[in-house]
Structures are given as structure tokens and as C-alpha cells.
Amino acid sequence: MTLSTGLVLYFIICTGSIIEGNKVLFLVVEGLTESLLGRVATPSLDALIAKGAIAGLKPEFPSETLPTLQAMVTGQHTEVTGILDLEVRGTSPDQVLRFDQDAEYWNYSNNLTTVWNLNNELEGHKTGSILWPGTDYPISGLANNLRWGVPYDIVVDVSKMDNNSLSEERTKRDAQDEFNDSIFPEEETDIVEVENVHVADTNSSYTEYVFNKTTDQEWIMWNSQIKATVDWLSQKVDPVNFLMFYVNQPGEIIRTFGPESDEADFAVQKVDQMIANLVEQLHTNSLFDDINIVITGCHGFTEVSTDKVFDISGLADTSIFMGHSPVINIRPSEKQSLDTYAKLQTGPLDKYDLYTKHLLPDRYHYKNNDRVSDIVLVAKEGFVFASDFWADVKKLNKEQKRPDSLNNMYGKAGYDNTLESMQSLIILHGPGVQTNPGPEHLKPMIDAVDVFPLLCHLLQIPPTPSNGSLHAVRNLLNNPPSQSIEVIKKVISYYTKEDKLPKTVSVLVVSTLLLVVIICCGACAIRRRKDIGKNHNYRYSQVKSNRRVEGRVDGSETTDDKVGLLTSAIMEEEFEEPI
Questions:
Q1: Which listed CATH number (3.40.720.10, 3.90.76.10, 1.20.1440.230, 3.40.50.10960) goes with 19-76+112-301+413-427+448-468?
Q2: What percent of the chain has pLDDT over 70?
Q3: What pTM was computed for the model?
């Protein structure tokens, strides 16, 4: 084996990160959970799981879409990304930043790096996005290359666009959307419920929902997005190797009708049929076997009824509220902070948890951010604050053409991210993924921040230091990276943090000095031994034979028995005679 071959094999063994292919399709299907998969027939998702892997996903706190999406693509917790809600406070007390209007909302930290930033920096790597929040705005100075736009199936190269041109484009698009809605009202989807559809080779049956795919606007939009996906991945010149695909269903339906509703079941089946269409198109274009597919539901929902709504407007001025239920940030003036907190302590504490900023649980990874207010309220599971709930549900009912009723049930996310109802899932399939890695009861659970190093591994790009880890999903991967290399990286990352850097430098300096002293001492010891040896002059003589030439007494010995022996018997030390 040559030296070069040995080095290559050593590199492969040490890194363990050589995987087949580097194309990744990251599909977020908001609100998809294991409980829904167990209740609704989803043959397409089941097929991917059967030949791939599945794990649980713990969302970021608050357990909502934007905080969790940003955690997955950056590997950083909410307190680092600054993505707390649909809107956040700006640098001034009266400034409000919205996710769909202000670039500053996304650019909280100049040191924030996304997975598409890392991907686009490598030669031959290119990113595309479909309705992915935040990709309109450059993060860390680099936007993604391609994105899908509505309503005209537009593919836009935004790599050379600045924030002003992006803002103008959005303004024109919003105006055109309003014009189209006024002239072409959205058609209602005709849903036909078919009972007791038999599953082949089993004794089970399920309820199938059928809809008109030629007139359903959402289905038409999905077909357009799937076409763009396949075109980007298969184009011969500068193909896309990483695609982020966001689907707001079944989440949008669950928010309106609740997670236990028939409408939620239909939305899940509809999404499953969309995924079937996507997989079919990937097969048709010979892409399926070479692409790693990552599907997640982002977070779960809990069911909310109108009797769980409570009003705290008598305890605090709602004009200083920021955010949406179940997490409300309150920033009173310095003079009013004590009075406001004292009044909130007299409220229904069986329905919400009251925190000062610095007493928020560390496990939320939320408090160390200047967008977080001095007082934070977190509603308990199933309860909602009235300050924003009624306006939100009226909007949802209007969008879904549902009559307002006190008997309506709704779906709500954003609660404590350790609650079972908030948990989601992640499905992996492709050449970089193990098939059927283990029994169901050993299924791993990963955090949202762990998705970042997972995507980097599948894309074969070196990840930046993050809060995520591949430890939980190592058994789900083909050729996972070396654990020893991961440990070394974590140690280096830990000791090079800004707050620990001075101590690290001091330890390195002292260690270096000690090493130099030890080396010098060793060198002096070796030299001293040589000097001692020079003071003694030993002579060795070689004797042809140490036996008598005359032969033995019995006369049996001959001259052929003579041998040369090295002996130190004769050692003479020369001394010079004084003159």
C-alpha cells in the first residue's frame, strides 16, 4: 500500500463523513405529527419511512414555525437568532419589526450563518427555496440563489438583488395578489368523503377524502412548485443541490379546525398525495435514488376551545404587549414595572406562568436576548390570552369560510416545547440514510438545532460551531462522522468562545512554557550522559579462542573448535605519566 493510499484511507476512517451524493430536499410540512400519521392513511409517507428512518423532533421554544425553522437552518437557539414571534421589538421601544416586511427582523446577529450560506460558498453547490420564510432577505451577507414566486410561477435569481429591490418586488406582488383576489375569488374545494376504503393485503380500512385536482388552487400551486423542484435539481448547467420546500399544510387547517378534526385528517391526506406526486416526478427524472429527503412537521398543536380563553386586560395595559398567545412579552416603563408585575401576580396563575426575564427557565434558551421583554407570560397548555386570540380566529374563520361560533375548536402551537402535544417528527430517506435502523421503541428524539449539522453532513459541507449535534441520529446515518473528531471540534469550539478565550490563551501560554522547560531539561540530561561517557575510555579485545591450543586432557579437542568471542574482560584505562 502506498503512502498516499494510506493517507486517504486514514482520512476516511477518521472523518467518517464520506456519503453517496450530496443533493438534499428539505421539506417542511407544518403540523405533521406521529399522532396524525397513526390516525390518517398516509401511504406515501409510510413508504418513505419503511425504506428510510424516522425520529421524533422537539421544536424550539416558543413551539412555533418561525423560531423552529430558524433553529433548524442555523443550529442556534432562539436567544441567538432573535426570532421570537411573527413580530418583535426593534432597537427603539416603539419600533416593531415584522417577519414579512423588515429585513432587520431576520438580521438580528451579523455572525448568524445559515446552512444555505455554507452551501452556496462551495463550488458546484447551489440552493433553491420554495416559500421558505426569510429567504427574501440576505443573512450574513449572502442570500440563496433561486426561489419560487407566486402567483405566476416565477423563478427569480436574487443573488444580485439588494433589500430595496426586494421590498419593491414584494409590494408589487402584494398589490397584484389583492387585485387578483378581487377579480378571481378563490374557489371552494369540493371534498368527497369515501368511507371504508380497503387496504390491500390487510384486514384494515380507512376513510379516503377525494377532491377535484383540476380546480383546487392549492393543488395547482403544489404542482407548479414540484415542477420547479425537479427542474432545478436536474438542470445540466449549475444544478441545485439543496432545496428548501415549505408547505403550510396541514398546519393552516389545524389552526382553524383543531388537530382532532376531520378537516385536519383531510389536510394530512392531501399533503400525502402531494408527496406522492413529488416522489413520482423524482423517479421519472431519475433523481429519487440520488437525493436525500428530509421531511419534518416542525411542531405540533393542542386543541383550544373558547372556554379556555381568558382576559388580563384589567391587569396590564395591552398596548405594551408584544407577541401572540401563548407567549406574551410585556415591556412596561421603568416606573410601572413593579406595579405591573404585582397586578399580574393576582391574576389566574392556574392558566399562565409569570416570569421576569432573568427567571425564565434555562431550558427555553430564550431569555438571553434583548428582544425579550422584562416580563414574560407563558400560557399553560390549552389556555390562550384574549388579547390576540379573538382577532386571530375571526381571520381564520373568514379565510376558511367558516361561521363564527362559540362551539368551534381551534389549534394552537407555541407552548412549552417539552409538552407531548408540541412534539413533531422527522423522516429521512436516501443514500445517506440507514434503512430500518432499529425497533420502534428505540427511535431517537432530536432537538430542532440538531437538524443543522444533519443537513450539513448530508450536503457534505463543514458545519460552523452550533448548539446542534449529530449524536442522537448517528445510528440513522450511513457513514456518520467520527465521534472522536466531533469531540475535538466541540472542545475547540467551547474553549474558543469569546467569554472563555482569555483563559484559553493563558492556559496555552503556560502550557507552552512548561513544554519548553521540559524539553530543555530533557536535552540537558541527554548531553550530561554523553559527557560522562567521554570521561571513561573502555577497550575491548577480541580473542580468537579462549581455549588451550594443546587440546584437552583426553586429546579430543582439535584446532577447528576455535571461535571468536567478544569479551570485556580486558579493560585498560590509560593514564599519562607526569613528566
A1: 3.40.720.10
A2: 72
A3: 0.75
